[in-house]
């Protein structure tokens, strides 16, 4: 028999390949899944194995087999985009190494299992898998343990997805010193994207990892605690509980604070923002059939909140300062169609407007006054107008802060202070798909990717950023995806916008395609993300006569 399993895969997944201590033949399943002739070069094929499924990939003449579903939300990877040595999820852009199953880009926390592949003399492809991995379709990478003789301390400031990914990656990559993760929220890191999409979320069910996980992997977690000062000269952190920690290296990913407009009544009861699980709970507990909800802002947060609330209350009104929602992200035409979708579902809009003041009685909001003097009844008011970067505590630290509070980094995410790395919302970092130009981008998957890259560089594994921004939203069951960055000069739409089945190409200076969005046209945005990650550039002329002629056959 001819084995196609790479040696590094054998080392990484010995339990999947048999022969591991404490395992028996009953723990594994091995069967012929197809003929070798059924899968061509640079192709993926989903095959049955017992009661489970496996993704088979042929690339560079080698066959490999990994879990068939994305570890994030379970998308079938066979419908995704195959890149160079990895497959990208069609839904949210997570990437997995096709030989090891390791997660290389995000969202998600877990890697995929990989399985032994052999080809018989007659061309039959046989896969051997551990039954438990076949059932779960997830794999947590082996972690290093803290060593008593290693007196280094690495501190992660921020307990969001970026900080959580950094802390975990440090252990995955062999760091044996002390790891401390400091989170100002009183809870473990969780899937924050659900805050505005599903406000009735069960916090325990959306945790990225459990306390047991952090305990078992010697990652200290300090909850409900904020860093109030960083001293770059002495390598010392001061916490709001008076505690001080000396660090050898630090990763700062403190994210953002939701913005409240400087208007009268902005702090009244029932005037809310949406950033944390506690914020979502506050809004959700107030919803009732007789309530009237006013939302300021037509960002993703505002629209997701409107979509969630509209069937639970008497009325939802969205106030926007522009003519259509989401113009900055998707352009006028798509923004107009999204507004029509919302209006079809009963959401009302007041555009080219704003809120002058919130009017209350007995400490709670009852009305809002618009900039033109119109009064709207409001039992709940939600602000979804962006955020400010949470970096004020770094004043005087030696770290250079930009006017908006962001921090410039190099391609390794290191700040101007040696040994201090920065990621997530607050990082003004190079964007690979934008010619390496720096940008401050508040995307969940990018924040996780920053955490991984920072951890690798902190332990001396020089890894430059290859960031390709990817984000998504789900509005009334329609998934909108976007990849890229920058302000376009032109938007070209291919497909049926009225039916919300389209691809949009965002054309920048020189005719370069700087971004792409879609609805009901997967996996084209994932394919563009993978195309961009390889350093390839698409131009307007490449879109004719076939707008998708650049997609690999």
From TrEMBL:
Tell me the cofactors it needs: FAD
In alphabetical order, the GO MF annotations are: 2 iron, 2 sulfur cluster binding; metal ion binding; oxidoreductase activity, acting on NAD(P)H
- Keyword Flavoprotein assigned to the entry: answer is yes
Enumerate the UniProt keywords alphabetically: 2Fe-2S, FAD, Flavoprotein, Iron, Iron-sulfur, Metal-binding, Oxidoreductase
- Domain Rieske intervals: 31-119
Q: Which family does it belong to?
A: Belongs to the FAD-dependent oxidoreductase family.
PANTHER family given in the database record: APOPTOSIS-INDUCING FACTOR 1, RIESKE DOMAIN-CONTAINING PROTEIN-RELATED
Name used for this protein in its record: Rieske domain-containing protein
Species per Swiss-Prot/TrEMBL record: Anopheles quadriannulatus (Mosquito)
């Amino acid at each position: 028999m001819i084995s196609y399993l790479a040696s590094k895969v054998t080392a990484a997944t010995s339990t999947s390949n048999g022969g591991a201590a404490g395992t028996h033949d009953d723990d594994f399943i091995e069967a012929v899944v197809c003929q070798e002739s059924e899968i061509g070069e640079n192709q993926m094929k989903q095959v049955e194995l017992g009661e489970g499924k496996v993704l088979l990939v042929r690339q560079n003449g080698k066959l490999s087999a990994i879990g068939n579903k994305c570890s994030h939300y379970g998308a079938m990877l066979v419908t995704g985009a195959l890149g160079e040595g990895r497959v990208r999820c069609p839904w949210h852009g997570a990437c997995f190494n096709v030989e090891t199953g390791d997660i290389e880009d995000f969202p998600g926390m877990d890697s995929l299992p990989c399985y032994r592949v052999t080809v018989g003399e007659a061309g039959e492809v046989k896969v051997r898998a551990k039954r438990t991995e076949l059932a779960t379709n997830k794999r947590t990478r082996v972690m290093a343990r803290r060593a008593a003789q290693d007196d280094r301390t690495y501190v992660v400031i921020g307990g969001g997805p970026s900080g959580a990914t950094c802390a975990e990656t440090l252990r995955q990559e062999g760091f044996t010193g002390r790891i401390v993760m400091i989170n100002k929220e009183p809870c473990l890191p969780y899937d924050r994207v659900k805050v505005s999409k599903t406000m009735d979320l069960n916090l325990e069910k959306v945790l990225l990892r459990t306390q047991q996980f952090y305990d078992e992997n010697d990652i200290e977690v300090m909850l409900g605690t904020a860093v109030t000062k960083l001293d770059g000269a002495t390598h010392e952190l001061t916490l709001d509980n008076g505690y001080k920690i000396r660090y050898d290296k630090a990763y700062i990913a403190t994210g953002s604070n939701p913005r409240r407009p400087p208007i009268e009544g902005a702090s009244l009861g029932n005037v809310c923002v949406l950033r944390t699980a506690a914020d979502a709970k506050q809004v959700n507990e107030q919803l009732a059939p007789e309530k009237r909800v006013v939302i300021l802002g037509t960002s993703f947060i505002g629209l997701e909140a409107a979509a969630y609330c509209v069937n639970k209350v008497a009325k939802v009104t969205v106030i926007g300062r522009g003519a259509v929602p989401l113009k900055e992200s998707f352009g006028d035409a798509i923004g107009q169609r999204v507004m029509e979708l919302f209006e079809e579902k009963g959401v009302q809009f007041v555009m080219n407007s704003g809120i002058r003041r919130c009017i209350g009685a007995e400490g709670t909001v009852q009305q809002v006054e618009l900039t033109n003097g119109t009064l709207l009844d409001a039992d709940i008011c939600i602000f979804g107008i962006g955020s400010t970067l949470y970096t004020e505590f770094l004043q005087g630290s030696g770290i250079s802060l930009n006017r908006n509070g962001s921090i410039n980094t190099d391609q390794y995410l290191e700040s101007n202070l040696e040994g201090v790395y920065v990621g997530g919302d607050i990082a003004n970092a190079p964007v690979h798909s934008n010619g390496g130009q720096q940008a401050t981008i508040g995307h969940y998957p990018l924040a996780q990717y920053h955490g991984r890259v920072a951890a690798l560089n902190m332990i001396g594994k020089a890894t430059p950023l290859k960031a390709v921004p990817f984000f998504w939203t789900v509005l009334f069951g329609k998934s909108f995806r976007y990849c890229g960055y920058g302000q376009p000069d032109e938007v070209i739409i291919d497909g049926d916008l009225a039916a919300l089945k389209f691809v949009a190409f965002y054309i920048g200076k020189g005719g370069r395609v700087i971004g792409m969005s879609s609805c009901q046209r997967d996996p084209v945005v994932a394919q563009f993300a993978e195309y961009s990650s390889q350093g390839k550039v698409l131009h307007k002329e490449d879109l004719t006569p076939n707008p998708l002629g650049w997609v690999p056959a």
